[in-house]
Structure formats: structure tokens, C-alpha cells
Amino acid sequence: MKKNRNFLGKYVDMCTDFGMKLYFGPDGGKPNLINFLNGLFDGEKVIKDLEYRPAEHNGTQDKDRKVVFDLYCTSADNSHFIIEMQQLSQEFFKDRTVYYTSRLINKLVPRGHKGNTYELPEVYFVGILNFVLDRSIPNQYYYDVALCDQQNKKVFYDKLGYKLLVLPCFNKEHSEIKSYMDMWLYLFRHMEELDEMPKFLDNRVFGLIFDIGKVANLTESDMKLYESSLKNKRDAESVRLTAIKEGRREGLEKGIEKGRLEERAKAEAEKLKYALNLKKRGISVEDIAEDLGLTVEQVQKLK
Questions:
Q1: What does the pLDDT profile of the chain (303 residues) look like in tens digits?
Q2: Which candidate, 179, 142, 166, places its Cα nearest to that of 15?
């Protein structure tokens, strides 16, 4: 598919606040959100219906709202889902996801029951990340995290999970895309570049996405909201790329400086070795120090 030259593209970018609400929000996006979660859980859970609930952001700074946006909903079996799109890496990101789920679990503890029952519903954090989560494993685009026993590697508690999709690490070709999760990942990365629905996508699952996502169908007020949302996303992308560039430059400079220090240390070691040889040959300490630019104390310590 060739990229539409229009500044906004033919379809609304899924990785924007406006796009998340358009495609997955309560105003017509419920079928898409159900399909997305079912594709993500791939038979582990089957979600038939969802109820939207107010998303809360206690402890999140106002400036982060431009790069973090989310949805909170429950399924028919009373499972709870926090679905979050995040544009930029954030210090203590993992801590924050645990904090969000822990706070939700605390609210879900039954109150006023006799017998101190602590039975809880399932809670899941779904993160769609527009940054590399761990640069030591740059090709990992999917994290499926649960509480596990380290001895037998089995899940210890199966009612809390974290599923993270790392968009920059997803680089599959069309021929490699087989699962529904891969199809969703492809759309998150490329939706605004497309001119039509790719043939490898299942129309039953993704048809509604392309029906409601046309930029040309937006009202004037929605167009302004989308342009603002898209600007926030592109600003965040610029910040991310700048950080990567500066990080590479800093790494290069550190590498060069490390090389210089190693060369100096090697030269100093060679000089001291040569000085020791001269000392063993009976050359005076003062002459060795003067000829090699060492102190008398340095030469005296050589053995």
C-alpha cells in the first residue's frame, strides 16, 4: 500500500488519543475493543461483552496526559481491563503499571463481608507502547507477564496479568502475519499510512475499523480534535527520536573516552615496565625518572 500524501492520511491514526476513543471507545468502538482483547488473549479468555468504566489517573502528572491515554472496562465474567496507550518511555513505567493494578485490586476487595473473604476478580493491564521497553532485547514486541513460581516456572496466581505490545519492535512482513494479535499490531503501526484494508486482514474482525476510521467522514469539530491529538503524538515522536539520537551520541562519546583512557593506561603500564627493566640494569632512579617523565617515588616503588 502506498502512503497517502495527505498530511492527515486517509484513516485516523490509531496511536492517538482521538484514535483510541474513535476505534475503541464506548461510542461505537465496543466491537473493536472486544475483538482486540480476544485477539490478544487468543483463547486464554473469550470476551463476549464489555462495560466501560471511568478511567482514573491519580498520581499521573498533567503533562503526561498528552502521551498517555487509556480505557477501563469490565467483561461479562467480571474481569477488569486497563487498556493504555503510551507514547513515551516513562521513568518507573513498570512500577506505575503495578501501582495502577494494585490500586484497582484494593478497590475491588469485598467490603462488609463476614469471614474476611478476599476473593478477587481477574485484573489485567494491557499496554500499547510506542517505545522500546528493554533495549537489551530490542526484538521482543510482546510481553505476557504473570506471577510465577521461580522453581517450577508455573503461574502462581492466574488472576493478575500484564500484556504489553511494543510497537517499534514489531517489524513483520505481510507474509509473516498470521495471528490476530499480529494483525492488530500491524494496524497500530501502519493505520494512518494505508489507503485501503490489506487483504491479509480478516474483514469480519477489522471491517468496522476501516468503516469508522476514514478521516473524510470526520465532522469539523472532530477534525480539529484529531489534528490536535495527532500533533501531540508527533511531538512525542520527535521527543523520542531526539532522546534516541542523544543517547547514541552520548554512548559514542563515552566509548571514545573509554578508549582514550584504556590507551593511556596501557601506555603508562608499558612505561613503568620499561622503567623497571632499566632499574634492574642498574640505571639510577633519578635518571630513569627524568628520562621517562616519572617521579622518583614511582620508580622507587617498582619491583
A1: 444 434 678 999 998 889 999 999 998 999 999 999 999 999 899 999 999 998 765 444 555 554 567 899 999 999 999 999 988 877 788 998 999 999 999 888 877 656 567 788 999 999 999 888 888 888 899 999 999 999 998 999 999 999 999 999 999 999 999 999 999 999 999 998 899 999 999 999 999 999 999 999 999 999 999 888 888 887 777 776 676 666 655 555 555 566 567 767 776 777 788 788 888 878 888 877 877 778 888 888 888
A2: 166
Residue 76 domain boundaries: 17-218
- State whether 173 and 281 are in the same domain: no
The DSSP bridge partners found for residue 165 are: 128, 142
Using DSSP, state whether 127 is helix, strand or coil. Answer: strand
Q: What is the CA radius of gyration of the chain?
A: 29
Which residue is associated with the grid cell 493491564?
A: 125
Residues 196 and 280 placed together within one structural domain of the fold: no
Examine the domain organization and report whether 136 and 280 are in the same domain: no
pTM of the model: 0.72
Phi, psi of 289 (to 5 degrees): -60, -40
**Which residues are within 8 A (CB) of 46 and not within 5 positions of it... i.e. 6 or more apart?**
38
